[in-house]
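Priority: low. Protein: Major facilitator superfamily (MFS) profile domain-containing protein. Input follows.
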Amino acid sequence: MAAVHDRTLRCAAGAGRGGGANAEATPPTASARLRRRKTASRSPSGTGCGAADEVRTLSRSLTPTLKPGADLRPCEPGAKFRAALLRCRSPKAAAGILSLGNVLNYMDRYTVAGVLLDIQQHFKVSDSGAGLLQTVFICSFMLAAPIFGYLGDRFNRKIILSCGIFLWSAVTLSSSFISNEEHYWLFVLSRGLVGIGESSYSSISPTIIGDLFTNNSRTVMLSLFYLAIPLGSGLGYILGSSAKEAAGDWHWALRVSPILGMTAGALILLFVPDPKRGSADHMGPRIRTRTPWLCDMRALLKNRSYVFSSLASAAVSFATGAFGIWIPQYLVRAQVVQKTAVQCTVPPCNSQDSLIFGAITCVTGLLGVVIGAVTTRMCRQKTERADPLVCAVSMLGSAIFICLIFVVAKKSIVGAYVCIFIGETLLFLNWAITADILMYVVIPTRRATAVAFQGFTSHLLGDAGSPYLIGLISDALQQSYATSVLWQFLSLGYALMLCPFVIVLGGMFFLATALFFLDDREKAEKQ
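Result:
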């Protein structure tokens, strides 16, 4: 009788769903049972959420004659919310959120550069002392990168990312309350802690995108991600200058990005998955047991394409790090020499050049990354070495226009801005392509380590020392004519002339990468 009663209940439920009594009179076939199991497996926690899983009266309660069973059960609390959350975790949404986080990373990093002149005047520090802010930040960033690379290849990546964002947001907000002139060392220390937080993000997030996409779609998504570097840098200048102007105090420039950063950290926890390493490349079944860290490092050092592209990336970092800190200052001094502006001695100082430079950086970043992705895609139809060759040509072209900045700045600020625009566009062209080269020549289980170690070397040889080195050379050249406005302008220009030569060296490293790119890519595909 119980069995007959159960069949009657299922028949009634089927009629309520529009299936008809006759359709359920016979036992379900094997294919029907398989479809039912698939439907159950798609719902969170194996619980039903649709009308097909419950029969309710108009009063919203289960009918008294129907009881939950194998085919009829109520939804668990929160199941519908979890189902909606899973639908939002698409690869494109994840790439968008990670790109947003990268924008905020770089925006926070260059907010200080947007108010650097005010910081110098407030704490009464020299050019070398001001350059120390960026140097300490980058040193802590690069020292933490290998640690986060190791963790990123072995543990949940989105948890590490979120913790890093929450760390730098909290420290940046706290540093905005340092106002005593004697506590400059504490302000410098805070920038070091911010570097640790941002290091976790830059080391790990590209590898998640690499495991969500492949081939041309991966190039597009990495281009979107690395577009955040110039875009965030430019917005950092704009945010710093605008917040200072609005509040009349440079400290407020450091109180906006932390709130946005914490929001991005929450979005990553909710909507960004942690895909299986190598899943997009269909290498999951072929990936062997994870190798020890020292074994990974030995393999990377033997990978010639990876080594040369990392050295080229260091050259880019050297130039961008020095430019990001000193170009707005250089243009201010140029206008003082031209007698179109007055030298600032008491903050708040005029931040017009920081705003213009920030806007130029945003636009050139967008153009550079888009042109780089489109050009590489077109050149791949002609040669399989397109990625490193496009990077090499853009670097060599950038060096020419960056040299012209220091030639025309004394006579024409507009001419200097034109040279900055073209030079930065060519320089930013290779960022996403460099990341794509790494994804091609390194196997998935080593990518977080590879990204972290590349970040370590590029910062160690690049922007870790370039802001401080440029400031040091400028201070040394000023010693003979410390009170001369003209010599303050010229000394900083002479120091910045080091950058074009480093950029040319980076172009040579990309040409060397092109020689070994195909062999290293083939080795990675066979492993």
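Residues 304-337 form the longest helix (34 residues). Residues 92-278+293-526 form a domain with the Growth Hormone; Chain: A; fold (CATH 1.20.1250.20).
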